[in-house]
């Protein structure tokens, strides 16, 4: 907190409670994260991602029939739409995939006829927004998968109706059916990334929604916020660090240099959790299953060495991006695809917040304290009489 004459400024809004939410509860004291009351670890261990999405949107886990309905709707919107593909193809291969996905969501938004017309209709009804949320969540895997394939010079893979969300996502990315253990680890990561109260991207979505703008604009803005390495971009950045270090034996020397240069070590630290991120043990367990599945003890050794060394030196603990980065790498995703995977998951939380914000809206418009030059005047200016 800094003082500015008579006002107190909460830099970065740290510690500020901006509103209520019934979607998730983060408790750094007990190191717990609840989605609609359920511990995220329990959801990750027992639920398909589709059920978690349903829970975030509707407040309750789906019945078998409701889950089947959501799955059917998701399958209806899984294929990459021609206009979205055409828009992606216009982008240079050097475009960052986050920009590619942001553009694709923009195209989907602009093509949604239910949002056409006056800005006065932009916010949409609760029913329209739920339908838009489902369609976006359904469309994102194809966008992310196609992006990676395009960069690799590979052809689009059409979705498979016999596969559920996580398995189909991996199918569309790699063009082969993933082993069950891989699908399970990936599904868990999707659940862990889905929601986290008023993080920067979700708050961005709520700010945009508070002006009565549309859901797609809120998601496009949220993607922009997520891209930064202090937020979602950290899972990509973690992998760059792993690549830079190379092997466990080199951790100490690498860290000496990085800390001497005052570098931030990506994948560590959190604004809310100061004693460890509640999601890390579950994601680390998923990473361990992948390490075993792919027989890559070297990855676990590097992970443990960097964590042990950094925590003992700085007392700053890993966040979710630390285990998810190497996990996505083992599954075969390109490093640049990691943060788009975060979008595919977090879109469920963002859209739940869009609907919650809309339901009890107040324009989000904080104040600022001025610290510029004192009032001054244009030489020779004579005010009108
Ligand atoms: N590496 C090195 N030092 C760190 C790190 C880190 N990863 N994280 C915090 N610190 C240090 C800061 O340098 C600062 O030190 P100082 O007081 O000597 O200046 C102190 O710890 C406090 O850090 P802040 O950045 O001020 O704390 P804040 O609460 O704003 O930061 C943040 C949270 C931005 C996540 C920070 O820990 C960070 O930059 N981490 C790396 C990026 C990252 O992993 N982001 C992912 C977030 S989780 C998610 O999006 C899923």
Q: What's this entry about, in short?
A:
With 385 residues, the protein is mainly α.
What would your notes on this structure say?
- With 385 residues, this protein is mostly helical.
- The chain folds into two domains: 20-228 and 336-360, Orthogonal Bundle (Citrate Synthase, domain 1), CATH 1.10.580.10; 235-327, Cytochrome P450-Terp, domain 2 (Cytochrome p450-Terp, domain 2).
- Helix content is 56%, strand content 4%.
- It contains 16 helices and five strands.
- The protein has helices at residues 40-46, 49-58, 64-76, 82-90, 97-111, 126-151, 165-174, 180-193, 200-210, 215-227, 234-245, 251-260, 280-293, 297-314, 321-331, 338-359, and strands spanning 2-4, 7-9, 24-27, 32-35, 38-39.
- A three-stranded antiparallel sheet has the order 3-4-5. A two-stranded antiparallel sheet has the order 1-2.
- α8 runs antiparallel to α15 (321-331) and α10 (215-227) packs across α16 (338-359).
- The termini are far apart.
- The model has no long low-confidence stretch (mean pLDDT 95).
- Residues 12, 229-232, 234, 264-271, 316, 319-321 line the site of acetyl coenzyme *A.
């Amino acid at each position: 907190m800094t003082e500015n004459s008579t006002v107190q400024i909460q830099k970065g809004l740290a510690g500020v409670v901006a509103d209520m939410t019934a979607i998730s509860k983060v408790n750094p004291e007990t190191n717990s994260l609840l989605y609609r009351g359920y511990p995220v670890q329990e959801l990750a261990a027992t639920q398909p991602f589709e059920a978690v999405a349903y829970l975030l949107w509707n407040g309750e886990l789906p019945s078998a029939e409701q889950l089947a309905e959501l799955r059917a709707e998701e399958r209806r919107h899984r294929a990459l739409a021609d206009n979205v593909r055409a828009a992606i193809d216009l982008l240079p291969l050097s475009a960052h995939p986050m920009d590619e996905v942001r553009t694709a969501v923009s195209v989907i938004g602009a093509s949604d006829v239910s949002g056409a017309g006056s800005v006065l209709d932009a916010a949409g009804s609760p029913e329209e927004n739920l339908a838009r949320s489902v369609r976006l969540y359904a469309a994102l895997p194809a966008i992310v998968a196609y992006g990676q394939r395009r960069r690799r010079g590979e052809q689009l893979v059409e979705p498979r109706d016999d596969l559920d969300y996580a398995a189909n996502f991996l199918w569309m990315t790699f063009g082969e059916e993933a082993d069950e253990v891989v699908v399970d680890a990936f599904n868990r990561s999707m659940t862990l990334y889905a929601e986290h109260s008023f993080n920067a991207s979700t708050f961005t979505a709520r700010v945009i929604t508070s002006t009565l703008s549309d859901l797609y604009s809120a998601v496009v803005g949220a993607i922009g916020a997520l891209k930064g390495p202090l937020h979602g971009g950290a899972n990509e950045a973690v992998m760059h660090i792993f690549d830079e270090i190379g092997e466990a034996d080199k951790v100490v020397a690498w860290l000496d240099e990085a800390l001497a240069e005052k570098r931030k070590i990506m994948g560590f630290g959190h604004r809310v959790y100061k004693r460890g991120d509640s999601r890390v043990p579950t994601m680390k367990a998923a990473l361990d299953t992948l390490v075993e599945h792919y027989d890559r003890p070297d990855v676990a050794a590097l992970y443990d060495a960097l964590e042990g060394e950094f925590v003992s030196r700085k007392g700053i603990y890993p966040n979710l991006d630390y285990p998810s980065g190497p996990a996505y790498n083992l599954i075969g995703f390109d490093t640049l695809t990691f943060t788009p995977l975060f979008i595919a998951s977090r879109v469920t939380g963002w859209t739940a917040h869009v609907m919650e914000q809309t339901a009890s809206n107040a324009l989000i418009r904080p104040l600022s304290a001025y610290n510029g030059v004192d009032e001054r005047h244009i030489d020779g200016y004579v005010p009108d009489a």
